[in-house]
Amino acid sequence: MTYSASNPVKIAIIGAGAVSDYHHVPGIRIDPRATLTGVCDASQELLDKRRREWNCDNITTDAEAICADPNVDAVIIATPNFTHKPIALAAAKHGKHVMCEKPLGLNAGEVREMYHACRDKKLVHMTAFTYRFAPSMRYLRHLVTSGALGELRHFRSQRFLDWPETSWGWRQYKNTAGAGDLFDMTIHRIDFAIDLLGPLKSLCGATARFAPRTKTVDGRDCPPSEVDDWSSLIAEFESGATGVWEGTTLAKGYGFKGFGHEWAEINGSEGTAVYRLHMPNQIMVGKTGQDLAPVDVPSEFLKPADSPRDASQGEPATVFRYDLVWEFVSAICEGRDAVPSFYDGLRAQVVADSVLTSHAERRWIDLPAEPR
């Protein structure tokens, strides 16, 4: 199939909540090679709202039906974690390309099944690891791959959020979310660490839960949270580099306009570079004798060259997220793998699962290579 502006990739959104409204639909709207042709959600009330807002009349509460729809070429899954696997398998069965929010599944076994189903059907599959597309992360990757930082020695990640301590809904139960901060936030940082420095060899990790979350936002009682709101790990990369990650949703005062605090740095033999989410068009660089200082991201790294997005417009910490759809559609149009793929989602999930095992068993975990 050849796609173009006159024959766009027909995309259905499965899960019509805030993430789709914030990231995915705007990305579809600005890409002439794509069009929104279906919307699926468990809530009929939300579907009726999105029908008006998104100007799409093909709405349904049946995910299997939207996957089977001949007027759909690809689906974007933005539903609760426990639904990802059955929907992705349905999409693969019907020959649809798939982009799915992270974590891809409740555990690595589920993710492996999803990956193999799409791989074996030769479908484009993509994990929505948003922050790979931040301009500062794209430039950091260039500094790493160009050798500008020298031999890579240490990776360090902090993700601190100041979230309310009310209920997370389905996100706070193991059978529907899998885990909390670890699967929701830290898994992003695991992914871009692997992308920058290569596979991990071994790790130890821990999680903790501090907020009971027994009240909903409107004050109703609910069962207490079962998942972590703090997570951490120490790891060794196969390259010999070391890594440290910490994430929490309970860091009071870390607002930053809702984007929170994110600091990810690499220390190399020739210098240090730092990525910060709330300053996505700047990076901090330093070396011996020259302290860390902010540097503007060069224009060629503000967006992929062919992205239809205007890098000078909009909130910088928001608009780079539209490039997920650009990458997904580009992979479909060019007949290539999407980056990051379900394989990348699987590698990150194996690491996250191992953090839980490490904490439960109080030991280091060796990580075998994951076959493609």
Could you describe the 3D structure shown?
The chain is of the alpha/beta class and 372 residues long. It has two domains: 9-130, Rossmann fold, CATH 3.40.50; 132-316 and 348-365, Dihydrodipicolinate Reductase, domain 2. The protein is 33% helix and 23% strand. The strands form two sheets. The protein has a nine-stranded mixed sheet. Strands 3-2-1-4-5-6 form a six-stranded parallel sheet, sandwiched between helices. Helix 1 (18-30) packs across helix 10, helix 5 (108-120) runs antiparallel to helix 11 and helix 8 crosses helix 11 (342-361). The two termini are 26 Å apart. The model has no long low-confidence stretch (mean pLDDT 97).
**Count the helices. How many?**
11
Radius of gyration: 20 Å
Q: How many runs of DSSP E, i.e. beta strands?
A: 15
Q: What is the fold-level CATH name, i.e. the topology of the largest domain? A: Dihydrodipicolinate Reductase, domain 2
First and last CA, distance: 26 Å
- State mean pLDDT (0 to 100 scale): 97
CATH top level assignment of the largest domain:
Alpha Beta
Oligomeric state, counting identical vs distinct chains: single chain
Element order: H for helix, E for strand: EHEHEHEHEHEHEHHEEEEEEEHHHE
CATH superfamily of the largest domain: Dihydrodipicolinate Reductase, domain 2
The stretches of 5 or more residues where confidence is low (pLDDT under 50) are none
Strand order of the biggest β-sheet: 14-13-12-11-7-10-9-8-15
Strand content: 15-25%
Shape: globular
Tell me the CATH architecture of the largest domain. Answer: 2-Layer Sandwich
Task: Indicate the structural class.
Answer: alpha/beta
